[in-house]
Design brief:
mainly alpha; about 230 residues
Length: about 230
Amino acid sequence: MDRFQRTTLPVMLAGQRQIASLTTTYLERLYKEAASESVRTDLDFDRVTGRALRGVDPADVYERPFKDVWTALAEDVAFDEALKRGAHRLETIAKTDLQLARTHTVREVGDDMPKFTYTVRELQGEYDCALCMIASTQRYRKRDLAPIHPGCDCLVKLVTADEDPGQVIDEARLEAIHNAVEAALGDFDRGGRAMDYRKIIVSREHGEIGPVLGYRGQRFTGPDDINLPT
């Protein structure tokens, strides 16, 4: 584990800085197009990478995949399966940290862009989960970190607005998602008496990574869920 951290943590941190730099350049270009003026941002990378992302030492964060392996082995899980669990945890942590570097950068850079008011989620990649698809129909205030989930790869885009457009900004897309759910599951009540995604998909505050997308009724593990020896 120590050897892994010595060789890998610098690469992880460099990746976060690269994401922050590319996001800054992207937002500066957007601002020039939207406001017809240029802005240069002096981004403090220490505020959007490393410990700043979770408030936790990265060495502690990247110890967790090894703990998953050790726990699995202690429960007599086969080594190959235990290793697979640790690798999955590592991939999830790394992807989440890269996305956090992006969302933190949007928040910091947005402070220097007064003509931008809100952020919207821009779907990326070949596949998008239902949580992100629903969230992409919403608007968020620019000082609020866009809710993510582990492994989320959505872009965050700053937008201008003369007036608050309301929470739902893309009714057509939201309706299309409802139609897809109806086609897959049968009856669907758009009045919200049965299953309305606008009501069941919520944002929860995670102690480390901020607002996280989830379903109503889900919660994060807390101290009361941990069985400590007496």
